[in-house]
Each structure stands twice: as C-alpha cells, then as structure tokens.
Amino acid sequence: MNITLHHAPGACSRTPLILLEQAGADYALRIVRLASGENHTEDFRRLNPRGKVPVLVHDGRVLSENVAIAGYLARLFPQARLMPAAQDAWEQAQALSWLSWVASGVHPLIFRARMAGRVVEGEGAQASVKARALEALGEQLRTADKHLAENEWLAASHWTAPDAYLFWATGRAADSGLSLSDLPHLRAHAERMAAQPAVQRAIAREKSALETGAPA
C-alpha cells in the first residue's frame, strides 16, 4: 500500500493528516507551500486541477476534498474507527452531516475572514467582508457548541473524522479573530482533541517536515 498526503501547514489538510496518524498508516507526507504558489505549479495541477489541498494519492490513484478523503480512509482502515461503525447507519449519517457542515458551512467563512482581499478590493470593503464572515462564523459554531454541551464528541462515543475537521476549523476561526469566550463547549472539545496522541503526532510530523524541508 503506497499512500502520500499532499498537505499545506495550517490548512484544512491537517484533517486527513490526523486521520492517517490515528490509523497508524504508513504514508509519505509532501508539504505544499501555498504562500509560494506551489499549489499552482504544473506538477501539482496534474494531481489536482483545482489547485487545492488536501490531495491523497493511494497506489497511483488521486483523491481530493476532505469529506471524500475522510470517508475513504475510514473504509481503508476500519480498525481505526475514523467514522462510526458501518452497521450503525444513523451514526454514520450524523458523522457525514457534521463533516459536510464543516466543509460547506464553516470552512468558506474561515476563508472569507482570512482572505477578504481575494473576495473584494479596497480596505473598507475587505474589513466589512471579514466582519460579516466572523459574525456568521460565530453563529455557525454556536450550533456545535450547543451540541457539545450534551455530547463529548460530534457523532459517536469516540472522536471521529468530523471532530478532527472541527478541531482544525476551531483553531483557524480563533486565528482569524473570532473570540471563543462564549463557546466554552467548543473550546473544551478543541482541548480534548489537542490531547489526542494522533493529533500530537500529526503536528509533530508536520513540524519535522517543515524544518527539514524534505518529505516526511
């Protein structure tokens, strides 16, 4: 089994990085430096014409998008319990619902808050876009905070793929300027995720790859 993850530090591709670590997978990590435009090179565009991370390559086959990669890894490594058990159709559907929500309801708002300059021109307009994005982001994350007030994890009795994706989103939302002071259950969820060995290994591997400048 030959697996390579193309990942940009800080980007949402940290989600499958965490999942691969949880699965105990033997994989190669390729760092993509978005700031220098490596995602727009001819070589990368051959992998993903959209010019985005994450990109997972398994035995020469290419897969992109977090929701698809999470589902694929869950089936590839069932022992890792990256998604609820297949026989529990309801829990699986709930996990997919949460994954889709982060991808379509939260992630785009993080982009607008962080990259307002790529949405509109002019400082005033950009400030308005960021402010509106942060307001909407807070509203979205409050739904997760309410759910987590009564549940330790999003979709199962243990953490699964949507928890990893939400963990990334929570950190990026805070980095973008969103106060988490009124989201105590979301903060606690992020702390629980940060304490997971797979998360710590993923962050350490990313750091090592950045420091050495070589594939990890």
UniProtKB/TrEMBL annotation:
GST N-terminal domain span: 1-81
One Pfam family matching this protein: GST_N_2
GO molecular function: transferase activity
CDD domains: GST_N_Beta
Matching InterPro entries: Glutathione-S-Trfase_C-like (IPR010987), Glutathione-S-Trfase_C_sf (IPR036282), Glutathione_S-Trfase (IPR040079), Glutathione_S-Trfase_N (IPR004045), GST_C (IPR004046), Thioredoxin-like_sf (IPR036249)
Segments forming domain GST C-terminal: 88-216
Top-level taxon: Bacteria
Keyword list, A-Z: Transferase
Name of this protein: Glutathione S-transferase family protein
Biological source species: Ramlibacter rhizophilus
